[in-house]
Structures are given as C-alpha cells and as structure tokens.
Amino acid sequence: MRIKKSYLALSTALLAVAVIGVLLWMHLHGAPDSIRLLPESDAVAYANLTPLRLANVFASLKKISHDPDYEDFIQQSGVDFERDLSEVAVAIHLPSAAAAIAAPTGTPPAPPEVRFSWIFKGSFDRNHLGAYLRKISRSTEIYAGKEIFTVPIENRLVRVVVLSSDKVAVSNVDRLEVIHQIVDRASMWRFLPAGPALVREHYKDVPFGSLAWAIGKYSSSATSSGLSLPGGIDVALPAQTTWVASLRYAGAIELKAQALTPTEEDARKVADTLGTLLGIFRSLQSNIGTEGPDADVKNFFDSLQVTQEGNRAVLSATVPIGFIKKMARQAPGAMAEKPAQPEPTLQQNKK
C-alpha cells in the first residue's frame, strides 16, 4: 500500500513537472502576449523596445520636439510613449476592392482606407488615463467588465480600452466586434499560445530573438499584388505568398525579409527579380560621386544579398549601428542644437 502511494506521489510530481515544462516551453517559444491579443487581420507587426532601452540606445539620440497636441495629451493622460512604452503590436486590416466608398455620379469613388488595431504594452496609470478618455470620448460601453471608449478623431471613430495596468488596446476599425475580440482574447491570453492565424502559421519563421518583425499575406483578392520598395520599385509576388520581415541583434543588427511562395519556381522568380534589382542598384551606386558613400551606408548596402531556400526567396543584410543612428538623427522632428544666431552685419550695426 505504501509503495502504491509513493508511486502515485511520484507520478503526480512528474506530471506537474511535465505540465510546467510545457507551459515554460510555450512561453519561451510562443509569440509575445501582446501579439496574442490581436484580432484576425491581413498583416501583423511587433516591436520590443525594452532591450533598446536597457542598452541606452535612445539616450544617444537627439531630443524629439513634441507636437503641441501630443504634449497636451501627455499632460492630461499621464502617458508619454517615449518614456512608458515597452512593446507595440499592430494588426493591419487591408480594404477589399469592394470596400470603395460610393461617390456622386461622375466622380471617382474615394479609395478604401487601411485600418489598424494596436496593443500598447508599458507602464500606464490606468486611473489617470481612464479619466482622460472619459473626458474626450463620445460614448462608452461596458463589455466583459471592460470600459470601451469611442473617441472621434478626424473623420473616424477610434475605440480604446484599458485592458490592465500595462496594456491598452486601440482600434479604428468600424466593426465593433474587432475591439470585442481583443477584450475576449485579453481574458484568456495565457491559453492562446500563438494568437491570430497568421502568427499561428508563421511565427516559427521569425528568427529567434527578433526585436521587431512583421508577417503578411498576399491573396488574389488583395488590393496590392506586389512588394513596394523604396524608389517606387514594385516587385510582383504570386498570389498566396506570405512575407516575413524581421530585425534582430546578434552582435550586429540582422535584417531578414522572406517571401514564402506557393512553389519553388515562384521563389526562384522572386529571387531573380530581387537579385537583378540589387545588381542595378549597386551599379548605379558605384557611379555616383567620386569620394565614395558614407562607410556605414556602404557597409549596409554591400551586405545585402538574395538567396533562395526551397519555396522561399530571402533578402538579408547587416545593419551597422552607425547607420541606425544616422537614420534616427535625420528623422522628422529630431531637434538639432539651437542654431547659432548669425553675427549682425556691418549695416545692421550701423542701424
């Protein structure tokens, strides 16, 4: 009898260890919890700012000049995204061709708009933020114990819900069920190991440790049938192609963009097209200027390479830290040092 009890206790302990191990594995290998809250969509994107803050990357950047409206938002809501935000997840809802808004006879219909749903994770004062949202909202709704605020912004209604002290959901999709889906997911996110369908199917294609990544899919009914590159260059993609883009730090910042096509032949065509464009770009680059480009910029473009791996075409590159800092300094809104006032001219002195 004592042996049976010992055997039962040992079996129970082993089962508990196995369950804990599975949950730990799911936590380590599953998508971040903020991504798991997103509704179904045509594309998703995610960024984790915490490692960058720990490395004091933002401390070396120039101070950003806030828009007056944003400064007012900070003061009233107590939320400063530059200070408080640690993760952001975005669901991108593409319009269908049939979603064009009707217009008067003789005028072209207004183009349908891309809509978004966001999950912001960080450190928020939910009481302070809730009071601000009640002040600016047109209406509120209680759903599953959460207060949903409907806020008019420009020509659309934006719905906001404070999910917890560290998560806020925002959506400008017209359909009310989208924000409801987010609230439902928030109540059971621990049991959602992968999240939306795109993430369930392709999170395994995101390189481990990526700080930022995005997944999307082109279908025959998509409003766009290709990949738009800087400079107005479009790369045609076969229908039902899934793309995965990522950034991760492993001694250097690694950029990787993958096109997962239906067949290997499709992947070869995409890789050939990208390779041709890359060759043309490098040829043009070598003929511009005599002093040579900036070293960080040159190293970035020299590292670009295109490969084919079965049914996927892969574009990869190494991004120098100096290149990132230069891009950040040139971003709109970056405050440079206050320019020195010009010395008064002789004619001005005389006046």
Annotation keywords:
about 350 residues; 12-stranded antiparallel β-sheet; globular; single chain; alpha+beta
Describe this structure in words.
With 351 residues, the chain is α+β, with helices and mostly antiparallel strands. It folds into two domains: 31-98 and 112-197, no CATH class; 206-340, no CATH class. The protein is 36% helix and 28% strand. It has helices at residues 2-29, 33-36, 50-54, 68-77, 81-84, 126-136, 176-186, 197-202, 264-286, 295-303, 321-329, 346-350; strands at residues 43-48, 85-93, 115-122, 139-143, 146-153, 156-164, 167-171, 210-218, 226-229, 233-236, 241-249, 253-260, 305-309, 312-319. The strands form two sheets. The chain has a twelve-stranded antiparallel sheet, sandwiched between helices. It has a two-stranded antiparallel sheet with strand order 9-10.
The strand order across the widest sheet is 4-5-6-7-3-2-1-8-11-12-14-13
Work out the number of β strands.
14
If helices are DSSP runs of H or I spanning 4 or more residues, what is the number of helices?
Answer: 12
The count of domains is 2
Shape: globular
Structural class: alpha+beta
Q: Give the averaged pLDDT, no decimals.
A: 77
How much beta, percentage-wise?
25-35%
Rg for CA atoms:
25 Å
Helix content percent band: 25-40%
In this structure, how is the largest beta sheet organized?
Answer: 12 strands, antiparallel
**What is the rounded distance between the termini?**
110 Å
Order of helices and strands: HHEHHHEEHEEEEHHEEEEEHHEEHH
| Uncertain spans | 18-28, 97-104, 332-351
